[in-house]
UniProtKB/TrEMBL annotation:
This is PH domain-containing protein. InterPro entries: YdbS-like_PH. The keyword S-adenosyl-L-methionine does not apply. Residues 76-152 form the YdbS-like PH domain. Coiled coil: none annotated. PANTHER family: TRANSMEMBRANE PROTEIN-RELATED, UPF0699 TRANSMEMBRANE PROTEIN YDBS. Keywords: Membrane, Transmembrane, Transmembrane helix. It comes from Glycomyces tritici.
Length: 165
């Protein structure tokens, strides 16, 4: 967390490995929400069976393939880092988004945690900046690490001259 100036470079840290099962659970829930109603209706409505069970099966196959591949890929690609001068993130799969938020532009720092994240011991650090690009989210940090980063960012922004407007 110590760099003397803000420079364009890849962030160094991967997210906690527990983020992969969290992402898998999110994909499984989304797949089930889409496929199960179609499957149930396909079973109950005989004349529409092929029109309902076909898409349900396709959604299930795509969901299972996504469960197996996407979380591993996302974990390799997504990066983050906090230095004394900026917050760096690198996200995206095909279209990469590389964000750097200088400390002088940070307005608020929050940690959030939904019930699913909590069950995996993860949190999201949300850094709101004075930027039209919006907030920076570090999703999938270990709970204590997210709290420590929020505290560190608060100290750094307090000590950084400038105005986040």
């Amino acid at each position: 967390m110590t760099t003397s100036r803000t420079t364009l470079r890849p962030p160094q840290h991967q997210f906690d490995p527990r983020v992969k099962p969290w992402w898998r659970t999110q994909i499984a829930i989304a797949t089930a929400v889409l496929a199960l109603p179609l499957a149930v209706l396909g079973i109950l409505i005989a004349p529409a069976r092929i029109w309902l069970l076909g898409p349900a099966a396709a959604i299930a196959v795509i969901g299972l393939a996504s469960l197996a591949t996407l979380p591993v890929w996302w974990h390799r690609v997504h990066r983050w880092e906090v230095t004394d001068t900026a917050v760096y993130t690198l996200t995206g799969y095909f279209w990469r988004t590389w964000r750097i938020a200088p400390m002088s532009r940070i307005q608020t720092v929050d940690t959030t945690q939904g019930p699913l994240q909590r069950s995996f011991g993860l949190s999201t650090l949300v850094v709101t900046t004075a930027s039209s690009a919006g907030e920076i989210k570090l999703e999938g940090l270990e709970q204590d690490q997210a709290a420590a980063l929020a505290e560190r960012l608060t100290e750094l922004t307090d000590a950084t001259p400038g105005d986040a407007t």
